[in-house]
Amino acid sequence: MSFSQPMVTIRSARASAAVALAQVLDAQRSLTDVLATTMRLVAPRDRALTQELCYGVLRHGFLLDQVLRSLMQRPLAEQDPRLRSLLLCGLYQLAYLKTPPHAAVSETVAAAAELGFPWAKGFVNGVLRSFQRDPETLMKRAAQDDPAADLGHPAWWVAALQTTYPAHWRLATATGNTRPPLVLRVNRRRITPTLYLAELLKVGIAAFLHAVAPDAVVLEEPRTVEDIPGFREGLVSVQDAAAQLAAPLLDPLPGNRILDACAAPGGKTGHLLESLPLGCTVWALDRENSRQRKIEENLLRLGLNAHTLTGDATVSAEWWDGHLFDRILLDAPCSASGIVRRHPDIKWLRRATDLPRLAEYQKGLLHALWPLLAPGGVLLYTTCSVFPTENECVLQTFLADNPDAQEKTIAATWGNTCTLGRQIVPGQEDMDGFYYARITKSPQ
Length: 444
Hints:
18 helices; alpha/beta; 13 strands; Alpha-Beta Plaits; Rossmann fold; globular; four-stranded antiparallel beta sheet; 3 domains; N-utilizing Substance Protein B Homolog, Chain A
């Protein structure tokens, strides 16, 4: 179905969520991009429920879709993706939100008419009432029919996790179906994590210091950034603990010239600047002007400065001034398979065939940036992927092609030691999935 037609104002949360989900599930669009438009068309009182329905259906939708198929005598017509999404919203309310059944059913039925399917009101009512009669049996049967759906991930994804992480794959899938914690990175140039934690406790906000990431404070209850003390003033940023482990691994020395390639939205750039020794300078590169502006906005809030550059990291002639860098951080674009608890649409949008294509791009980035690193310098390669195709395999090829490159072992108590680099499996220390490899260049 095409979604190019003009959108009209939709006031109910369930109808809004159905439209948004259809664009993700049928048109293969990013939920972040879809919600940026959808939320402008939703009444303020309905925005929280709209978002909850979207995220919830994408987290649990593989199993709910299996249930839905069992409740229908024939498949829904392909031209009605919004109706399928609406039914998934109804099932999610009854199975996971524990919305009062009358409200869940009646409001979902009303949304069918609102979406232009008045003929489907009885159908929607019948499907949801059928589920209500024996939800436990239907959910259990669906899980037995499709174990991967029960795990909330595509079958190919589950198989890859089982092969790669035989001791941790259940943790990884379970974590991918949960709500993420709200983790803050404390700006040490302004305040210490211990002092900031004390300030939170003074105003009744329950929080604790993270066990692994030294700059991380975890809030026990989520809240909007507007409600986070000190956020607007630049005392803290929102950043998962796993992502906070990257900047310290560069281990810069005084006076180092540092490149943060693929830097947007600037989280790791900010962390570098908050902890750099004297005399260091940072260049933050991204290929899109809009993403570059996001870096600048984040640094402005933090009261920090970097040399921001717009250009393609694989084409250094577009932006490089010819001076070598002592440190390079390459947070490479990837499948984002380690952060699905934050972006559950990834489980629906990603395909196994994407991984080789992404790996080739990652190899291209490494090969393009390596000549820009000074002899004796360090390049830190990171991804938020859990798949070796994008991690160890990329590094194996790179090291084989570049005899002046050597891995520098990451000695740490967190995550897992890999053949090359170190991997955090989603859920370990309640962190996102992340990969790190530190590569040094031989001195001349």
